[in-house]
Amino acid sequence: MKDTNKDTNKDINNIVFMNKALKQAVVALKKNEVPIGAVVVDKNGKVLARAYNKTENNGCQAGHAEVLAIQKACKKLGTWRLDDCSIYVTLEPCLMCFGLVQLSRIKNLFFGASCGEFGSGIGQAKEHKLYFRRINIIGGLKEIESVDILKKFFKSLRKTKKKKKG
Ligand SMILES: [Zn+2]
To answer: Taking burial as the number of CB atoms within 10 A of a residue's CB, which of 68, 111, 114, 132 is the most buried?
Structure first.
């Protein structure tokens, strides 16, 4: 039998939107931020917001790409309720961002790379009562590209640190 669910995961639109999130990650990389990008899309496939991680620039952990993208999308729609919207993010959201995604009533969460250390441990977060909402979570979309850009960043960071020490 055909695995239709798997087909949906690799849906061409999902790839297109994840590529847009990756483009945001590239912008972050150029600005010496940890390269993570996010895009919020409405149910008709219209892009509502794009954002990249600005933690260093904003001097605050609330500068995560998902937070900024959700803020922009809410502003655009004039409501905090992002029912039927989807978010595409290049790295598995942290607990803060996953909470925000859930509270914003986003329907679908797509992410690229998994994040062991800082990821929300989405499986467990799903069990949390506050966040007991149905949300479709699909990871591993454009995973290789999402990981590569992070590796690139941390590699250059190590080089810079070595130079400073040297
Ligand atoms: Zn986060």
So the answer is: 111
Q: Which residues contact 114 (CB under 8 A, 6 or more apart)?
A: 92, 139, 140, 143
Tokens found for residue 35: 């390269």
CA–CA separation, 165 vs 143, rounded Å?
33
Give residue 2 CA to ligand 1 midpoint distance, Å: 35
Question: Could you list which residues have their CB under 5 Å from ion ligand 1?
Answer: 64, 94, 96-97
Could you read off the pLDDT of 49-64 as tens digits, one per residue? Answer: 999 999 999 999 999 9
Q: What is the whole-number distance in angstroms between the Cα of residue 1 and the centre of ligand 1?
A: 38
Residue type, 135: I
> Is the Cβ–Cβ distance between 46 and 36 less than 8 Å?
no
Known catalytic residues are: 66
Q: What is the DSSP string of 2-16?
A: --HHHHHHT-HHHHH
**Which pTM value belongs to this model?**
0.87
List, in sequence order, every residue forming a beta bridge with 41; answer none if it has no partner. 47, 86
pLDDT the model gives residue 134:
77
Q: How many helices and strands in the chain, by DSSP H and E?
A: 7, 5
